[in-house]
Write a structure and sequence with these properties.
globular, 7-stranded parallel beta sheet, Rossmann fold, 7 strands, alpha/beta, SDR_fam, binds nicotinamide-adenine-dinucleotide
């Protein structure tokens, strides 16, 4: 029996990419899941996958995280359904490409709303429940939060803020026995740039991944979703009981190779 089989895990952005992989991994461990996303069709598919994979119980909450009431509803439904929360994975994210000269200014609000404010709000609402279970929070950041990346200026700024929030929350919630950590992936082939609110026409995820892989210490092009899943399973587990406030790069050493002055 896995240590997660008696636990409740809330995952935002669970309908796609890393979130889908994280949900399936916890399902295989027999956890109960609260899966949150705005994409109802894919969320329902992932819910069915997780039930088949061995999840104890799965709740799907369709919610747009740019709407504060939706966040409150997602947390309320989770607690009403399971009466506890052990792990909060703040994973949902959007990425609008663009530099200081050309990024659309209105994408600032949507980027920060999803990538920072929603994670802050979920964490704030989760505190009383995580205090009871001595649970933990994992924020999905990015190496660009620690490595200035001019072509993804708002995205990088939002991830830097998320890393700051991770460390600050780790300090203030330690006395309640709540751990807060982040995972910072490098490039991985997901839908991140495929949504209307994200990508800039003309640059594919494949081109970006190849460009950024230059000088990568461990070689290769991108990381796999499973690499991020493994890091999260570790940070969420009792094996990481002494770890809080860390931002674990899952990046083939890419962060060490440093910034590139333009996107492609
Ligand atoms: N793919 C990469 O290269 C990469 C690298 C580093 C970090 N990340 C981070 O990983 C996380 C997951 O992204 P991904 O790569 O799996 O991309 P993805 O697009 O496949 O998944 C993101 C999910 O978030 C959901 N989402 C977006 N806006 C939302 C909103 N307003 N309300 C509710 N749900 C919303 C989407 O519907 C989607 O299911 C993000 O935080 C992203 O910034 C990705």
């Amino acid at each position: 029996m896995s240590e997660f089989s008696s636990k409740v895990i809330l995952i935002t952005g669970a309908a796609s990419g890393f979130g889908q992989a994280i949900a399936n991994a916890f399902a295989k461990k027999g956890a109960s899941l609260s899966l949150v996303d705005k994409d109802e069709e894919n969320l329902n598919k992932v819910t069915e996958q997780c039930k088949k994979a061995g999840a104890n119980k799965v709740l799907a909450v369709v919610a747009d995280l740019r709407v504060e009431d939706n966040i409150v509803r997602a947390m309320n439904e989770t607690i009403e359904t399971f009466d506890r929360l052990d792990v909060l994975v703040n994973n949902a994210g959007v990425c609008k490409l663009g530099s200081v000269e050309n990024v659309p200014i209105d994408s600032f609000d949507s980027t920060f709303h999803v990538n920072v404010k929603a994670h802050f709000h979920f964490t704030q609402l989760a505190v009383p429940h995580l205090e009871k279970t001595k649970g933990n929070v994992i924020n999905i950041a990015s190496i660009v939060g620690e490595m200035p990346t001019p072509g993804a200026i708002f995205y990088g700024m939002s991830k830097a803020a998320l890393i700051y929030f991770t460390k600050s929350a780790a300090l203030s919630l330690a006395e309640k026995g709540i751990r807060v950590n982040a995972v910072a992936p490098s490039g991985c082939d997901t839908n991140l740039l495929n949504w209307p609110e994200s990508s800039q026409p003309g640059i594919s995820m494949e081109e970006i991944l190849k460009f950024y892989a230059k000088d990568q210490p461990l070689g290769g092009i991108n990381i796999e979703k499973q690499d991020v899943v493994d890091a999260i399973l570790f940070l969420a587990s009792n094996s990481a009981r002494t770890i809080t406030g860390t931002c674990l790069a899952v990046d083939r050493g890419r962060l060490l190779a440093g910034s590139i002055t333009k996107l492609v």
